[in-house]
Each structure stands twice: as C-alpha cells, then as structure tokens.
Amino acid sequence: MKKYEYKVINATTIGFWKPKLETNVVTEEMNKLGQDGWELVSVMDTSVGYGQTNEILLFFKREARF
C-alpha cells in the first residue's frame, strides 16, 4: 500500500483595499515543490469578510520517502 506525506503552503495577499497575490512568487515556489515530487491536490482561500481573501492555502502531497 502506498504511503503519502503532505505539505501546506500559505500564500498571503498583500495590500488592504485591493489585496493582491504575488503570483510570480507563488509560481516559483510551486515549481520548486513540483521538481521535488510534490503534487498540488487542493487550494482553499480564507475569507476575512465581505468576500475578501486574506490568504490562500495550497495543499500538496507526494509518495512518502521514509
């Protein structure tokens, strides 16, 4: 039976009135994880009210190496 390990990355938005996500930084981090065998399996945003996102959680998994 396969065993997996998991990792959660927190991508925080920048700015108060119009929060933005630095997508180039997130993309770079995701590419590094992908090269190390991690696969993105889910994404969840955390709402701070009125539909505004404060941070985005990215969930990764890979086959366990232990």
Task: Walk me through the structure.
The mean pLDDT is 86. It is built from one helix and three strands, in the order βαββ. The longest helix is centred in the middle third of the chain and has 13 residues, at 23-35. Helices cover 20% and strands 48% of the residues. β2 and β3 (52-63) form a beta hairpin. It has one helix spanning 23-35; strands spanning 4-12, 39-49, 52-63. The two termini are 14 Å apart. The chain is elongated and about 45 Å long. The chain is α+β, with helices and mostly antiparallel strands and 66 residues long. It has one domain (4-63). Strands 1-3-2 form a three-stranded antiparallel β-sheet, with helices on one face. This is DUF4177 domain-containing protein. InterPro entries: YjzH-like. Pfam families: DUF4177.
